[in-house]
Amino acid sequence: MTTITAELHNRTKKKPIKGMMDNVMEQFYSAADHIELHPNIRKILSITNNEIIVHFPVKMDNGDVEVFTGYRVQHNNALGPYKGGLRYHPTVDIDAARALAMWMTWKSSLAGLPYGGGKGGIQLDPSKYSAGELERITRRFTFALGDNIGPEHDIPAPDINTNSQTMAWIADTYMSTRPPAERTANQHVVTGKPDGSGGLEGRDRATGYGVFLNIKFWAARNNESLSNKKFIVQGFGNVGYWASHFLEKNGAKLVAVQDAFGSIRNTNGINVDDLFNYTQVNNGSIVGFPEAFDLDNEKFFTSECDICIPAALGNQITRTNAPKIKARLIAEGANGPTNVEGEKILIDRGITIIPDILCNSGGVIGSYFEWLQNRNGELWQLSEVMSKLDKKMKESFDKVYDFSEKERIDLRKAAYCIAIKRIEKAYVQRGIFP
Ligand code: NAD
């Protein structure tokens, strides 16, 4: 006969690591319970409004045709048009798109923006395709999405493995397929465009800069300085690079980095811009950077440091590595990098987590500025963009930090409570049609 302890042990051993959808739902229910969210609104927010799956053919360079699957999930638009990125990655599926779309709803709401939440992408490994193939894939995906996206309806942005070039292709394809009189007025169908094509100066750094600001605000609240603080970064793309750049400028020291190809470390510090320049001539990879040593991937998260910035994929900090993490602060540049089990362990160990929907919200705030700029036919200066971003990020951080202290809850739950309450208010005021 199995003893209870043995059975419990087996159960723990077999328990699968929770997926992103499990995490976002658990986080939502926990906050909904805390604010005693009305059961009807709980029902509405528990599910996505629309899920679009498209299969579309694209001609490859060798003349063969490949059929791709693209997703766009629209979670909720009570506060405004759906907003959220498009990701090109092998892990993109309907479950990931649902979770990421939900996170966008909370993020836009928390930032006080007139947006709902959406997310999507294509399940592919872009490194296997030429630039020409990626352009045709993007344009055909845009065509397949048709009127499911639009500047006042659903506004995509860059995410993993998509960038300003991808957004320029989407905008051009969308505008080219509108009736003639509407063509040029629709460039705000996407944000994160190049600055010569309706993009916002500073949108490239907005997310990483926002991550840095959150860390700075946290340090100030705790009477600490960033000077000589050691930090590690997972993902050295748009978010990871810019967050590192601003932290280094403010005296902190990058001591370990991980990307899709491997991990490196140097306890004396890794120069951020030298590493960035190296990736530009090394197929985007950090591996082999001469001023650092190789590090086992498994040892990355448990490296000696003060601050850890996961800025790559979801579900990276779990019950497996959370007990051994050395950082005192986790600043979530990525969406959903810490799962619920990992988070419980970190909180029990007294480690603070600045949650994704707050920490990386500089991106969607920058996107909002770009959308406003396009809608009003304006051109904003970089200094104006950065100071507006500073102000908005500070408001969000203070709101969340103060609420967490007042209610004695962690920062994630506080952020969720604020975000959900704002959506609840819109439903209560408007009622449900018919
Ligand atoms: P990116 O494509 O510019 O960079 C991604 C980085 O992650 C690359 O360095 C890549 O090598 C690395 N990576 C990929 N798989 C990895 C793995 N298995 N292990 C370690 N590293 C891996 O993407 P990005 O725009 O910087 O986005 C990163 C994260 O930030 C994503 O979770 C995204 O949803 C989130 N985010 C991005 C923005 C934005 O404005 N770009 C805004 C909010 C949130």
TrEMBL record:
Catalytic residues identified in the record: 119
Matches recorded under InterPro entries: Aminoacid_DH-like_N_sf, Glu/Leu/Phe/Val/Trp_DH, Glu/Leu/Phe/Val/Trp_DH_C, Glu/Leu/Phe/Val/Trp_DH_dimer, Glu/Leu/Phe/Val_DH_AS, Glu_DH, NAD(P)-bd_dom_sf, NAD_bind_Glu_DH
SUPFAM superfamilies: Aminoacid dehydrogenase-like, N-terminal domain, NAD(P)-binding Rossmann-fold domains
One Pfam family here: ELFV_dehydrog_N
Site (Important for catalysis): residue numbering on this chain: 159
Keywords: NAD, Nucleotide-binding, Oxidoreductase
Gene3D superfamilies tied to this protein: Leucine Dehydrogenase, chain A, domain 1 (3.40.50.10860), NAD(P)-binding Rossmann-like Domain (3.40.50.720)
Membrane-crossing segments per the record: none
Keyword Nucleotide-binding in record: yes
Binding site for substrate: 83, 107, 367
GO biological process: L-glutamate catabolic process
Residues the record lists as binding NAD(+): 207, 238
Domain of life (superkingdom): Bacteria
Any one GO molecular function term: glutamate dehydrogenase (NAD+) activity
Domain Glutamate/phenylalanine/leucine/valine/L-tryptophan dehydrogenase C-terminal: 200-431
Entry annotated with the keyword Phosphoprotein: no
Family: Belongs to the Glu/Leu/Phe/Val dehydrogenases family.
Protein name (record): Glutamate dehydrogenase
Source organism of this protein record: Constantimarinum furrinae
